[in-house]
Design a protein that fits this description.
There is one protein chain. The protein has about 600 residues and is an alpha+beta fold. The chain is built from 20 helices and 21 strands. Strands 12, 13, 14, 15, 16, 17, 18 and 21 form an eight-stranded mixed beta sheet that branches. A hairpin with a 4-residue loop joins strand 13 and strand 14. Helix 2 crosses helix 10, helix 10 runs parallel beside helix 12 and helix 11 crosses helix 12. The longest helix has about 35 residues. The protein binds adenosine-5'-triphosphate (ATP). The site of adenosine-5'-triphosphate (ATP) has 14 residues, from strand 1 and strand 2. Adenosine-5'-triphosphate binds next to strand 1 and strand 2.
């Protein structure tokens, strides 16, 4: 298949933000794609080569990418750098460098999807010493035979900058329409995607074997399932209202969500983002091997503990487990336990269709038989409640035990992979004093540190995600809550993402001394949300000419590297939080007013 139809479709997609138009373009492209290439084309339009859980990345440094452009457009490195500075986008820079060289008709052979994919694959799989040079040569070889437009997308893809603004559900719609003629079939595809996390394979199955084969897709060991997520609520009453007459309440532990896949002779662990994290927790894998079953998929929260006291330790302790070397030592110094809260598969059978209550019983039974003796494998504490007051009591005990709050779950609910609904709700402790929730925001800029912080960053500019435009809009500048260790760590991490000007996907009215690629997500808490003329999050949503900003923000100590930037708190969520805060304030003012009147009338009667 020629690469050209992809380039043309990508071009059209970049010009529209209408979901209908995006879907139409995708449908046309998918119809044109031979069935045996459907998986590859599906990955390419998502800017990947494989499903995320494979963890395969191109790994080409920006400098090498610029060198590849220079070599294939016969320009000097400084010329290419100047073009890049002017354009601010690697793809646009490649096109301009190639265009002015007249590289539009001289290429020798048609670029094909097979060749592009195969070369990308080689780039991604080249590792070890000298790999950057090899990667560079591979990219340059593609550019040499490309038109400037093709080169533009090749470079965008290689550098992870291909942003077509298509969400997974748009691809699912397009697949349903292209291969079944009926958008309603998307549900079937979505179910298959939710249990396999692999859109390419679902697409290929549909194109080659039809809808019935997609319907038959089952949970498979070692393929992560998209996690069920929770909605947030602010009070125990609200949580109870969302349930039937009863609610299962569990501790909400402050650790890392892990999906355990236990096979007959090995265990794999996946993060909330479905990345393989088996290497971080060999001790958890070992404990999982001791389960009295042949195969199982379970979910739980890994938490750092003080083995002497049994006390849970802060989330940051888990960071010590994210290392390639010295994991044995880290296991010794930073012990963890896993608190299981769900079972999705057991000995050849999916269990997601069982109601929560039955899954919980099955979980208890399965863990009881483990040889681990409950040292590492624990089940998350739980009670069943019928009154909000019981939730409040359990919440108090959760907080006393070092938890973030509680999760309230509908006892009759099945496990809804990939869904965020009110079947699970989260109630965090912060709501009493500050904003109802923490926010996960992306670092997009910084000011240099002064005084004690010279040589580090003094304040970080943070942004929320606007999924409609696929842009990060600034919402606050944060300078408190950092320890010296954080400051050092941030400096080292952020240095890798420094860019020479504000990133094209960042929108802010603030001027900064340093700009970053929007990559790192951190968690902050704040006292309230206010209107702001210089922050762009939710601009005009509440008041013309004003965005929303956080007041007195503080870093909580959590770097959310389990979240991708697009998983950050959205600008719409901030609007909701703002409205909720107004409501709480006005209710508080009202009750104060009533109290005052009551007092006045009592005094009058006296
Ligand atoms: P979300 O996952 O809802 O987008 P998030 O990643 O910020 O947001 P939280 O708001 O912290 O997560 O709440 C959900 C997370 O809580 C789960 O993904 C899981 O890691 C954690 N968690 C802790 N205890 C439990 C529990 N008992 N049941 C389910 N999740 C739990």
């Amino acid at each position: 298949m020629d690469f050209q139809p992809l380039v043309e479709t990508f071009g059209k997609m970049e010009e529209t933000s209408s979901r209908l138009a995006l879907t139409d373009h995708l449908v046309a492209l998918l119809k044109e794609t031979p069935a045996d290439l459907i998986d590859k084309v599906t990955y390419l339009i998502q800017g990947k080569l494989y499903p995320d859980y494979e963890g395969i990345e191109m790994g080409l440094a920006e400098r090498m990418a610029l060198r590849a452009i220079a070599s294939s457009s016969s320009r000097s490195m400084s010329e290419v750098e100047a073009i890049y500075r002017k354009k601010g986008d690697i793809g646009d820079a490649a096109r301009e460098a190639m265009e002015s060289k007249g590289q539009s008709t001289l290429f020798s052979e048609q670029m094909t999807v097979e060749r592009v994919y195969c070369t990308f694959d080689k780039i991604a799989k080249t590792t070890g010493p000298g790999s950057q040079e090899t990667k560079l040569r591979l990219v340059a070889s593609l550019l040499n035979d490309s038109t400037p437009d093709e080169g533009r997308y090749i470079m965008k893809f290689v550098m992870g900058a291909l942003r077509l603004g298509i969400a997974d559900y748009t691809v699912l719609d397009a697949l349903a329409i292209a291969f079944t003629g009926d958008k309603a079939n998307r549900k079937v595809l979505e179910n298959a995607y939710n249990v396999s996390s692999d859109l390419g394979t679902v697409a290929k199955l549909l194109a080659t074997k039809g809808l019935a084969a997609v319907k038959a897709v089952q949970i498979t060991l070692f393929k992560p399932i998209r996690p069920m997520l929770a909605e947030r609520v602010s009070t125990a009453e609200e949580a109870m209202e969302r349930m039937d007459s009863r609610a299962a309440i569990e501790y909400k532990l402050d650790g890392e969500r892990v999906q355990i896949h236990k096979g007959r002779d090995r265990v794999e662990l996946f993060s909330r983002r479905l990345e393989k994290i088996t290497d971080h927790y060999p001790d958890v894998s070992k404990a999982a091997m001791s389960l009295a079953c042949k195969e199982a998929i379970m979910e739980g929260e890994v938490v750092a503990v003080n083995l002497q006291t049994g006390e849970y330790l802060p989330f940051q302790q888990l960071m010590h487990r994210r290392r390639k070397h010295g994991i044995e030592e880290a296991m010794e110094n930073y012990p963890v336990v896993i608190n299981l809260f769900d079972i999705l598969y057991l000995d050849g059978k999916s269990r997601t269709e069982l109601p929560y209550e039955e899954r919980r019983k099955l979980l208890e039974k399965t863990v009881k038989g483990a040889k681990d003796n409950g040292i590492m494998l624990k089940i998350v504490p739980q009670v069943v409640a019928t009154e909000p007051a019981e939730i409040d009591r359990f919440m108090a005990s959760a907080i006393e035990n070092g938890c973030e709050g509680v999760m309230v779950k509908m006892p009759s609910s099945t496990y809804r992979a990939g869904a965020r609904e009110y079947l699970w709700v989260k109630l965090k402790r912060e709501y009493r004093t500050e904003l109802a929730d923490t926010l996960d925001l992306v670092i997009v800029g910084a000011l240099h540190g002064r005084g004690r912080r010279v040589g580090k960053y003094g304040a970080l500019l943070l942004a929320a995600y606007d999924p409609k435009e696929d842009i990060f809009r600034s919402v606050t500048k944060v300078g408190t809550g950092f320890t010296d260790i954080h400051l050092d760590q941030f400096y080292r991490e952020l240095e890798k993402h420094v860019i020479h000007q504000k990133h094209a996907r960042v929108d802010t009215g603030m001027s900064m001394e340093v700009w970053f690629e929007p990559v790192i997500v951190i968690e902050v808490i704040a006292s309230e949300i206010t209107l702001s003329p210089s922050h762009m999050a939710a601009m005009d949503a509440i008041k013309e000419g004003y965005g929303l900003a956080l007041r007195f923000p503080k870093f909580t100590g959590k770097i959310r590297d389990d979240k991708e930037p697009e998983g950050a708190t959205t600008t719409d969520e901030i609007v909701t939080m703002y409205r909720r805060q107004l409501k709480i304030h006005s209710e508080a003012a009202k009750s104060k007013e009533q109290e005052k009147k009551k007092k006045e009338s009592e005094e009058g009667e006296e």
